[in-house]
Amino acid sequence: xxxxxFKSEEFDSPDVPESGxxxxxxxxxxxxxxxxxxxxxxxxxxxxxxKEHQAKLKAEGYPVSENSAHLIGKAADIRCRNxxxxxxxxxxxxxxxxxxxxxxxxxxxLDNAEEKGGPFIWLY
Length: 124
Prior knowledge:
Largest sheet: 5 strands, mixed
Radius of gyration: 13 Å
Number of strands: 5
Structural class: alpha+beta
Order of helices and strands: HEHEHEEE
Number of helices: 3
Strand order of the largest sheet: 1-2-4-3-5
Distance between the termini: 30 Å
């Protein structure tokens, strides 16, 4: 994975070392461009997810989709600490062409899984 701002281990599923290498190249390229346009560091809170980790999150009550783009390496959740960061992340994502954006109080979900449809913006 050749990226300006990211290392593959930032996207590892917590239960599968080196799984960040399974991230989709086009997704990482778009995310890299998004990070550049936003002009702020992106802290990845969730990248690639194993099916087991996805099941664990669901059991813990997190709002996860059965066919999440995280499972195929086409999604990442980016920490945001305030409305200004949220605005910069979402604005950059739209300008890069992300059409699937989830917004929570603590993170912004971005994915480019075209097979899931869009454009969509949702709230957690």
